[in-house]
Design brief:
The protein is α/β, with parallel strands linked by helices. It contains seven helices and nine strands.
Length: 226
């Protein structure tokens, strides 16, 4: 396999929403789930997010626990996984937490729609930029490049469009869903898999590998792709 072992981790409401209709990054995870997610981050070689998440939420994508960062250092790894963003137009502010927060290698996959000046500015900030000469980033090629960069275990943190494309293209091995005891509703609220969608005949099939009940009333579902 010339790509990393890839798992999507997502927190969703009981009705499958990963944010409210306001799309302001509504908190869904409980304290218990946040600890689980931090452990997952500590286990990963890189964390990947899509363009909307990257630009609108400016995520830190770091390991919060000092003990877990120290454990990574003892293993001969960097304190934090590589931060990876995939975005068609990489107009990322220089003061974005993605760029400025935490000690981590930063990688951006973008297209020729990003201006040369913006690419130069990112590289000047120490960001590694890969430019795809196509309307959208080729995710299969991106996965191969990450593999070449030494990423063996890739964590995907959304959003819904990136999640869907990674699954549709067969680039995902595992799907972890924390279902919170909440209902957001809203026809336009994002779900864990958005994008163009599939017919019933083309639906992706999953195999349930584990179910865990949390004290907070949430449920963790672990699926493997067949």
């Amino acid at each position: 396999m010339n790509r990393p072992y890839t798992f999507i981790n997502v927190a969703a409401t009981a009705d499958g929403k990963i944010d409210s209709f306001e799309r302001k990054g509504s908190a869904i995870s409980s304290a218990q789930d946040k600890e689980r997610m931090d452990e997952l981050r500590a286990s990963a070689d890189a964390i990947l997010v899509g363009g909307k998440t990257l630009l609108d939420e400016q995520p830190k994508l770091t390991v919060k626990s000092a003990a877990r960062r120290e454990r990574r250092i003892e293993q001969g790894r960097s304190p934090n996984p590589i931060k990876v963003g995939v975005v068609t137009v990489a107009d990322i502010p220089a003061d974005s937490d993605f760029i400025q927060f935490g000690e981590a290698r930063r990688v951006i996959f973008t297209t020729a729609q990003t201006s040369i000046s913006a690419i130069d500015a990112l590289r000047g900030l120490g960001v590694e930029v890969f430019v795809d000469d196509a309307p959208r980033v080729d995710l299969t090629k991106m996965a191969r490049t990450l593999n070449d960069l030494g990423v063996a275990r890739l964590m995907v943190e959304g959003g819904g469009t990136l999640n869907f494309e990674m699954m549709r293209l067969g680039l995902t091995d595992e799907l972890l869903i924390y279902l919170a005891p909440l209902i957001f509703g809203g026809a336009n609220a994002p779900t864990l898999a958005d994008g163009i969608g599939l017919t019933r005949q083309s639906a992706l099939r999953l195999r349930l590998a584990d179910v865990e009940r949390f004290d907070d009333g949430g449920v963790l579902l672990k699926y493997l792709f067949k």
